[in-house]
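Quick sanity check, SRPBCC domain-containing protein:
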Amino acid sequence: MARTDRAERTIAAPREDVYRALVERDALEAWLPPEGMSGRIERWDPRPGGGFRMVLTYLDPAGSPGKSSDATDVVDVELADLVPPERVVQRAVFEAEDPAFAGVMTMTWQLAAADAVTGTRAGTGTTVTVTAADVPPGIHQDVHEEGIASSLANLAAYVEQRAG
């Protein structure tokens, strides 16, 4: 049965700044890998229908076997829909021999204005809601939601540092 995972975070930065971090190569490499991983983009085509290929490497592969190799998760991402500054929809396919990781997972990054963000001027906050639909069964829900939350924390730190 198809599963949907979600996470949300309010970021103290305008939607335009958050959106830009979702569609720029250097930004994605900096914030998208969750805690315990690094990332490198091998292919980049930032337009609807284009996408990117990212190699995520575990900093300590001993406790976290990768999907693509002992130390890596490789994912091909199609940019299915780009609606500045409101939404980015990605279709992600993991490179893995294990059929438990097969299939297309759709990640929707929805950006909404958040006027009441502590420590910011009115109208400069953004609530980011991430919805991952059709999550492959090999990806454990608690680990996946923790990873999304970690990426959102990285996104917040990345964007807020540049906005501040």
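Posting the structure with no commentary besides this: The chain is about 25% helix and 40% strand.
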